[in-house]
Amino acid sequence: MDYEQFKEQFKEDLKSNLEAKGHDIASVDIAPSQKLNQDGYDAISVKLENSMMGPSGNFSNLFAAYEKTDDYDLVLNHATRMMDDAISNMPSYDANQLTDYDFIKDKLVLEAVNAEKNSSLLEKVPHKDMEDIAIVYRVLLGQMDDGIASVVVTNEMLEKMDITKEQLHQDALISSPEIRPVEVNTLFGTIAELIPDAGFMLPAGGPEDQILVGTVADKHHGAGVIAYEGFLDEQAKKMGEDFYIIPCSIHEVLLVPESMAHDIDSLKEMISNVNSCELEPEDILSDNLYHYDSKEKVFELAENFKERIATKEHELDKEAEKESAVGKLKKTQDKVKEAPKKEHKPKSKDKGEMAI
């Protein structure tokens, strides 16, 4: 079967399989994905009778699996199990609750995504820009065995609830740290969690003990901690200095003390290499390096920080030169004032005047 034949047959068979398992299925639809931070793909979604909730998955991956295995029943049975489990574990709630701000305000969490990658969706959702990173707001409805049930807050939802973006943001700053608390560990500690024998490879006291990893307790979409109130200032205080921020992925960030960041270009090159070789496209947050200035309270691109500091130093140098020039002029004026005045003598009269 080609893609279109596979799609039509798959929708029909999946609906029949799920109904055979006792689920009331309104429809099975396949359409281009509109999910945040993911490259374009076709998504398959199951709509239930009398419910606005339903599971969804990556249909493009299912077709790719069919092309690879040439086993239609294998792929169909896998999708049936996946959707059946999701439906069975799906939290239930009234559809009207999604436009009830009292219901969602305590369930708001912050999520960091790449702004350029999600530009079309960002036109439809409230967000806060942090350079090329966008902070969006998600309503966490419940936990499932293989993930979470959640909904991204849209401009349409805000309009129906008669809530401003500013109020949404302030409430999310309160609820997000409570629902998804910050977790900060040293890079050494994080590696040790993954590799128990890391101590043999990385001696204590090395740079891995000074670089921090910022995320949330469940390590899922933890890069949003950069937008938590006070987070950046707390880490600067802990380090005793300002720092650079490496966006490892949408799940975590690395915080590198200024005193350790000797080669900014190398750090940027490392970020680009990791993104292109190590991460799945949907997990990439940014290719850029950032800096936090705790005195000025500024989160910015590393190159903007360097330019701002260079401009500031240039202005200070010009001011110093101006003060120096003024000082020299003042000293000259003081010397003139202090110099002894010449005694004024009347002019001698010529002989004609003396004869009169």
Which features would summarize this protein structure in a list?
single chain, 356 residues, alpha+beta, six-stranded antiparallel beta sheet, four-stranded antiparallel beta sheet, 13 helices, 13 strands, disordered C terminus, DUF5688
Topology:
Layout: H1 3-20, E1 25-32, E2 42-48, E3 56-58, H2 59-69, H3 72-88, H4 101-104, E4 108-114, H5 119-122, E5 127-130, E6 133-144, E7 147-152, H6 155-161, H7 165-179, E8 182-186, H8 187-194, H9 198-201, E9 212-216, H10 231-239, E10 243-246, E11 253-257, H11 264-277, E12 290-293, E13 298-301, H12 302-338, H13 351-355
Antiparallel strand pairs: 1-2, 2-3, 4-6, 5-6, 6-7, 8-9, 9-11, 10-11, 10-12, 12-13
